[in-house]
Specification:
This protein has a domain at about 15-115: 50s Ribosomal Protein L17, Chain: A. It has a three-stranded antiparallel beta sheet. It contains seven helices and three strands, in the order αβαααββααα. The N and C termini lie far apart (about 75 Å). The longest helix has 20 residues, at about 40-55. The chain is mainly α and about 190 residues long. Part of the 50S ribosomal subunit. Contacts protein L32. Keywords: Ribonucleoprotein, Ribosomal protein. One of its GO terms (molecular function) is structural constituent of ribosome. InterPro entries: Ribosomal_bL17, Ribosomal_bL17_CS, Ribosomal_bL17_sf.
Length: about 190
């Protein structure tokens, strides 16, 4: 649950702020992105994300809780049928706030708050990356001739040289292979 904010309210009183944030949330779900002041966007984020979490549950009680905040049934239907399935794999962070500069009239800092609807890409864990490397290590320990051992050292040299891209790594390996062949000729 978000921490209650202290200090002045957005619309004057608490009831007006509640209605203002509910209307902003409805506009966000309808248009997927809205431009507002930074303060309103920051105050909207916890409410919007909590309502999306209810929509991900998808049961009748969750729908009624969202309807108690947003009175428009069409917007709630859109939230439950279109937005919730798109963020089903996401564990949070359903909104993104981007600062866009100041408003021309009163120089108020403006921001765009938008729904993050891109699919989640899971990062490979360190253990999962180490398992294939460990499986490849026993095969590399059985050199057939002196040449594969030299290739292993050249790969290590390329890694130690700090190759930052695959192309640089390939170039470093080629240079190391040339050096090994020159040593073999001499």
């Amino acid at each position: 649950m978000p921490k209650p904010t202290k200090g002045p309210r957005l619309g004057g009183g608490p009831a007006h702020e509640r209605l203002l944030l509910a209307n902003l949330a409805a506009a966000l779900y309808t248009h997927k992105s809205i431009k507002t002041t930074e303060t309103k966007a920051k105050r909207l984020r916890p409410l919007a994300e909590r309502l999306i979490t209810f929509a991900k549950r998808g049961d009748l009680h969750a729908r009624r809780r969202v309807l108690s905040v947003i009175g428009d049934k069409e917007v709630v239907h859109t939230l439950f049928t279109e937005i919730a399935p798109l963020v089903a794999e996401r564990d949070g962070g359903y909104t993104r706030i981007t600062k866009v500069g100041n408003r021309k009239g009163d120089n108020a800092p403006m921001a765009v708050i938008e729904l993050v609807l891109e699919p989640v890409t899971k990062k490979a864990s360190h253990k999962a990356a180490a398992a294939p490397a460990a499986a490849a290590a026993p095969a590399a320990d059985e050199p057939v001739a002196d040449e594969p051992a030299a290739e292993e050292t050249s790969t290590d040299e390329a890694a130690d040289a700090g190759a930052e891209s695959p192309e640089e790594g390939a170039a470093a390996e080629a240079a190391a292979d040339d050096a090994v062949q020159d040593d073999a000729k001499a």
